[in-house]
């Protein structure tokens, strides 16, 4: 027996060794022509690829395998794991023939899904009622799928997954309602419904592209329909369609306002192109470019180019005007270069631009009331070692009333930093000499006032004026007799210009002719002033136990004297005379109408005074920890005037009194001003303009103004109620607490504000009848509930007995969006504005609904 076993083992070893030698033998190479001797490829054995690329792991409370049909059935707490995907469901079936996995959620007795299928893939969770997945093609179909993306969630009736990047959905709802996403509510407060949606996902971002889409609020469809929508889910900027507002204006018809496209350009730029379209033929194009480089600069470029069409073509009221507006702003970061800065604010518009507003925002912002537009470009150079600053400026100003434009190009200013003329001996500056400061600089200006159609043409260059001006200001001060501050100052102006005026009367044409001479000339002027100022204190104390303990009065009187010679004297040569139409000898300055201005005429030797007052009192107060509190009667009360010793007539100036005070814990603010004419004004019969006489002492009111402002709020009239201690029953909606009394009425803080303002102004001057302006304004808001708010403002003209600008607004704070309604019921433009804005950052600028309507002043509202 043992020999037989040994013999068999030996035979097996011999066979294995022989086969091993055969396997290691290198086959001989076949000749190229021996093709027919080789084995055909059709005769080779091809191993069939397995349908699964990974192990399919399953588990369930009840598992059943149908071997003939190659089916697996999982019931109750079923789970399938395949590659990076996990499926959890109440029921799962696996078909090996079709490479198909089917899952269904838990059903109740009526067949309704009560627990969804949960599919997790690549860290993303999806909830569906039914789900099927092809392991070979990796495509899937889901019914009633719930997909969360960024700040929102999509619920689609049917979803087909083509691959890991593309999902197609049918009849899908998208919402950003946080309560619905967190399943605190079974219904979203709003959603956007589209019948065809494509979800495109990449490694860095994802986005939704839809067909026609409609907005629903509280399950109710709204009139907001969009032909399509693109919603990017990414923190980075993404291109997309900009949703317009729509409404009606009687003069231009129905409109779409602000429809456009947004396109980011690189890291530092983006482009926005908007259009305004009106049914009566008007249109407007608004390109906008924004740019920013961190720690360097930022700016934007905007333009409005359009055509305003009013009326019906062929009728008398038909008008067609082209309008334009070009705006550029640029600012430089202070950290970029402290020694060289550049800024620009350029705003150039056509003359009738604001009379033909195609962008409705100009009406809401009241830009239509603009009468002037200014543009400035500034370059500033500072030096590390030189005590000076050089500023170059180009400016352009338009006056829409006159149609004229002012152009200053270029304008350069060189400012020398302030310095002390004499060095201090002890290190501490004392006396008049050591405190002398010098301020000086140069200003070069090229200026022209011309029509817009003459810009940069020969007519403009002929009118161009060039002027150079230098100012030297010296000032010093010192203390006199410990309690008085004595100040001295002097100003010297030196001016040069390239054009002067020659004026004469032409008796043939019966006109006064101003002839401009092109010659180089200039003038020098100077003036000096001295002032003396001190501070006085006074205190009046009352008996102990009285309500008012003391009254404190602080007075700051000052006297000043100003002197300047009469530069209209023939000795200077700055003024000349001509005979006017009546034959009277009339003086004029040869620098009149020039860029550098004219020297002053008449000697000035005026003594001025100013008396400042501050009055406070101390009263008893139980609310103050010290037992007393200060009340300001007058924060400031100033009286000012002057007497000109060199004047031939009317040496006294108009006296002015200005006061400011506040009451009721600084809530009520009062500002007043009063102008008193010291000379008697006489009126000739039939004339409304008076003449100042030399009779001093007839003080008459020439002007008076008072402004009051008082803000009220719920906090002023009491502290907030502690509802948690007062009421036992409590409810909560959206993290806001309601407290209920025994009768089940809800209580909460109803915050409100109300600002009351009043203004009265009276001006008379030399007229017989003065002009009065009086108005009362109200501006406030009240919270009806924690989510409803009413706000508004109105002004009542007490002279015309009419309401002026009035606005009423309502706002509703929903969970995921806000509703605002603003209404201006009367005025030049009657406007209502309805706005719905999504709170989610991803949709705050992409989805909005606005409806505006404008009517003309005389049209019914």
Automatic annotation (TrEMBL):
InterPro entries: LptD, LptD_2. It comes from the Bacteria. GO terms for cellular component: cell outer membrane; transporter complex. Transmembrane segments: none annotated. Residues 208-679 form the LPS-assembly protein LptD central domain. Coiled coil: none annotated. This is Lipopolysaccharide assembly outer membrane protein LptD (OstA).
């Amino acid at each position: 027996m043992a020999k037989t076993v040994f013999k068999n083992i030996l035979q097996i070893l011999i066979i294995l060794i022989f086969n091993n030698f055969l396997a290691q033998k290198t086959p001989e190479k076949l000749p190229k022509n021996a093709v027919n001797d080789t084995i055909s490829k059709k005769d080779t054995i091809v191993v069939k690829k397995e349908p699964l690329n990974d192990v399919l792991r399953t588990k369930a409370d009840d598992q059943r395998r149908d071997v003939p049909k190659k089916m697996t059935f999982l019931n109750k707490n079923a789970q399938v794991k395949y590659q990076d995907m996990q499926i959890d469901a109440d029921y799962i079936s696996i078909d090996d023939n079709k490479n198909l996995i089917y899952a269904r959620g838990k059903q109740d007795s009526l067949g309704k899904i009560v627990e969804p299928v949960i599919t997790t893939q690549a860290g993303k969770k999806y909830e569906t009622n039914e789900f099927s997945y092809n392991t070979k093609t990796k495509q899937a179909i889901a019914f009633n799928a719930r997909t969360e993306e960024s700040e929102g969630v999509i619920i689609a009736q049917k979803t087909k997954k083509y691959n890991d990047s593309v999902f197609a959905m049918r009849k899908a709802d998208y919402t950003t309602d946080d309560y619905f996403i967190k399943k605190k509510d079974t219904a979203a407060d709003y959603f956007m419904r589209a019948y065809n949606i494509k979800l495109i996902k990449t490694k860095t971002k994802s986005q939704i592209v839809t067909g026609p889409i409609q907005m629903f609020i509280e399950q109710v469809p709204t009139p907001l329909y969009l032909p399509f929508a693109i919603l990017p889910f990414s923190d980075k900027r993404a291109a997309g369609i900009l949703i317009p507002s729509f409404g009606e204006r009687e003069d231009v018809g129905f409109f779409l306002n602000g429809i456009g496209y947004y396109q980011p350009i690189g890291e530092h730029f983006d482009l926005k192109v908007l259009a305004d379209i009106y049914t009566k033929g008007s249109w407007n194009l608004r390109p906008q470019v924004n740019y920013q480089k961190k720690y360097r600069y930022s700016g934007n470029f905007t333009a409005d180019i359009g055509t305003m069409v009013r009326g019906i073509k062929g009728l008398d009221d038909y008008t067609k005007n082209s309008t334009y507006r070009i705006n550029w702003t640029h600012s430089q970061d202070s950290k970029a270069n402290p020694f060289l800065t550049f800024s620009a604010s350029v705003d150039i518009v056509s003359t009738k631009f604001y009379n033909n507003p195609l962008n409705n925002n100009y009406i809401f912002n009241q830009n239509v009331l603009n009468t002037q537009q200014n543009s400035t470009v500034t370059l500033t150079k500072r030096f590390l070692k030189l005590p000076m600053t050089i500023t170059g400026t180009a400016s352009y100003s338009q006056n829409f009333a006159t149609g004229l434009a002012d152009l200053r190009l270029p304008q350069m200013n060189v400012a020398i930093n302030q310095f002390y003329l004499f060095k201090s001996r002890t290190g501490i500056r004392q006396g008049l000499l050591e405190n002398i400061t010098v301020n000086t600089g140069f200003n070069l200006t090229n200026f022209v006032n011309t029509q817009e159609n003459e810009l940069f043409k020969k007519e403009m260059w002929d009118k161009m004026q060039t002027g150079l001006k230098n100012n030297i200001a010296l000032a010093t001060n010192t203390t006199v007799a410990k309690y008085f501050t004595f100040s001295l100052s002097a100003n010297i102006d030196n001016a040069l210009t390239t054009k002067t005026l020659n004026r004469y009367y032409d008796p043939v044409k019966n006109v006064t002719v101003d002839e401009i001479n092109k010659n180089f000339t200039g003038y020098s002027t100077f003036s000096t002033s001295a002032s003396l100022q001190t501070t006085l204190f006074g205190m009046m104390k009352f008996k102990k136990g009285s309500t008012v303990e003391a009254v404190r009065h602080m007075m700051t009187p000052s006297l000043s004297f100003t002197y300047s010679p009469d530069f209209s004297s023939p000795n200077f040569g700055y003024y000349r005379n001509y005979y006017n139409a009546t034959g009277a000898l009339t003086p004029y300055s040869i620098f009149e109408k020039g860029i550098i201005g004219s020297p002053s005429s008449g000697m000035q030797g005026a003594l001025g005074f100013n008396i400042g007052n501050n009055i406070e009192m101390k009263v008893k107060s139980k609310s103050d920890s010290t037992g007393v509190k200060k009340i300001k009667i007058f924060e400031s009360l100033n009286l000012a005037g002057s007497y000109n010793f060199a004047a031939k007539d009317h040496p006294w100036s108009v006296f002015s009194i200005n006061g400011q005070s506040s009451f009721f814990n600084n809530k009520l603010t009062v500002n007043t001003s009063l102008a008193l004419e010291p000379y008697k004004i006489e009126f000739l019969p039939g004339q409304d303009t008076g003449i100042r006489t030399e009779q001093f002492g007839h003080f008459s009111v020439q002007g008076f103004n008072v402004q009051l402002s008082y803000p009220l709020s719920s906090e002023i009239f009491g502290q907030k109620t502690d509802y948690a201690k007062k009421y036992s029953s409590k409810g909560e909606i959206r993290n806001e607490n309601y407290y209920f009394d025994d009768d089940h009425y809800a209580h909460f803080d109803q915050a409100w504000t109300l600002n009351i303002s009043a203004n009265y102004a009276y001006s008379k001057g030399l007229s017989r009848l003065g002009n009065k302006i009086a108005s009362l304004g109200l501006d406030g808001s009240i919270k009806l509930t924690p989510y409803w708010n009413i706000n508004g403002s109105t002004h009542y003209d007490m002279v015309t007995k009419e309401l002026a600008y009035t606005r009423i607004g309502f706002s509703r704070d929903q969970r995921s969006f806000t509703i605002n309604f603003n209404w201006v019921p009367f005025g030049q433009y009657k406007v209502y504005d309805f706005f719905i804005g999504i709170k989610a950052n991803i949709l705050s600028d992409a989805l909005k609904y606005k409806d505006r309507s404008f009517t003309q002043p005389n049209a019914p509202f």
